[in-house]
Amino acid sequence: MRTRGELLLARDPAVLDTLAQGFAGTGVPIERRDPHGVVAGLRGEWHALWSPGCADIDVAALHAAYLAKARRGGVEVRCNARLAGARRVADGWELDTATGTVAADIVVNAAGAWADDVAALFGAAPLGIRPYRRTVVQVRVEPPASADLPLVIDAAGGFYFKPEPGGRLWLSPHDETPDRPHDVAPEEIDVALAIDRFEAAVDWRVEAVERRWAGLRSFAPDRLPVYGFDAHIPGFFWCAGQGGFGIQTAPAAAQLCAALLGHGNVPEGVDPAAYSPHRLSE
After folding, report:
1. CA 61 to CA 43: how far, in whole Å?
2. pTM of the full predicted structure?
3. Helical H segments across 96-245, by residue range
4. Who contacts 160 (Cβ-Cβ below 8 Å, separation ≥6)?
5. Which stretch of DSSP H or E encloses residue 256?
6. In the chain, what is the greatest distance between 2 CA atoms, to the nearest angstrom?
7. Measuring CA to CA, which residue among 187, 199, 198, 138 is closest to residue 165?
8. Disulfide check for 133: which of 162, 179, 191, 227 has CB 3.0–4.6 Å away?
9. pLDDT digits (tens, 9 = 90+) for 230-248
């Protein structure tokens, strides 16, 4: 994990006042900062909040560590095992997958953007889990990005960017486009939008787009995660709607889900009802 800090930009200082109030009492250090002294070449008048504790997570390494720990605990990971059907058998489930039949006492629906589709195979009503597309590009800019540049975010949701080795930037138009569950790819319009918004905000020029990605971030209608047993289908547990914060909240979410599944205690100060699927199915 690398600490780089976060600079939150806004044209209207009142927007930042509201955001700062939301952090009051949380213990998160946040203060006003002159953004022009942090990001050289900002165009026009900007105001900023500075949070020095913001840090990067090596998501791939963390995910690999979680998988390794699961395997050490006896978990069997089956990839390329698409779920084709499910049947209630006695007090459990029988699942038809591309790699054979699986018996289970409890099924945890952690299918991300596919959560509602998977639920339908079990006879559960959809909860309105909707995927939204997010685009990120790696660009080479002139002048090259400073290695000590923080994560820079437009509070209005127009863009964010952060430096990468070699003077590159990771840049996003902060898009949130409704999509469907599939192997998503970046759209040219979103790449162009990212560059246009970036060059309108800073006096830097994008010389080349070197890489591009897109992903699906899935949300429940109220944008809170969904953790808990289905209201009507026995042995069917939801773990979905974690768009945008899944890897960050994974340890706490896993502890909560384990407790709801009968292993350990609910974390202190957490109200499971706030995340229950019952709130949506009722």
Report:
1. 37
2. 0.91
3. 115-121, 188-201
4. 151, 152, 153, 154, 171, 172, 174
5. helix 246-260
6. 67
7. 138
8. 179
9. 999 999 999 999 998 888 8
